[in-house]
Amino acid sequence: MNAADRPRTAETVLSDIGLGIVFVLGVGFTAYMLADSWGGTSWVFDLVIAVAVCGLALLRGRWPAGTAVTGLIASAAAVAVSVAADLPQEPGPITALGLAVLVGSALRRLPGPVAGAIGAGGIAVVAAASVLGHGAVPVLAVLIMTGGLLTGAGLRVFDNTRPDRKHRDAAGRPYP
């Protein structure tokens, strides 16, 4: 049985609905604030990236590694494009939140080497944003990613200390 075959619990569905509401409100607010401060269509790029990464975060239960890697690639490309095209800095706050959810979820659920690589990718994206950008947006991205890393690693430790909640791979075998 793999993740796509598992039935979703009521808690998982409710938490995804709540997360989706936060994403929608955050994307809308960020787009409004960028349109107000930068003017023109400067908000469109942030909106597209935020919707893509947040959408991937909502799909993380089905394809944890694929969604995390795709979110990392999209965010890294967004950082490069925003610097090259003189657009608002990426990852924006909601994009950073979606990326932190993806990375934290990967740290919790995936085997050690894969989880470590995805965690390192999350650190690299926010480090690149901090080096290439300035101001509050990269600092906020670092804080949000730090929260995602700590939460994912903490939940992994917690899950592995409970005998009834051991991590299992796609074949159902436990892994550390």
TrEMBL record:
<protein>
    <submittedName>
        <fullName>Metal transporter</fullName>
    </submittedName>
</protein>
<feature type="transmembrane region" description="Helical">
    <location>
        <begin position="12"/>
        <end position="35"/>
    </location>
</feature>
<feature type="transmembrane region" description="Helical">
    <location>
        <begin position="114"/>
        <end position="133"/>
    </location>
</feature>
<feature type="transmembrane region" description="Helical">
    <location>
        <begin position="139"/>
        <end position="158"/>
    </location>
</feature>
<keyword id="KW-0812">Transmembrane</keyword>
<keyword id="KW-1133">Transmembrane helix</keyword>
<keyword id="KW-0472">Membrane</keyword>
<feature type="transmembrane region" description="Helical">
    <location>
        <begin position="41"/>
        <end position="59"/>
    </location>
</feature>
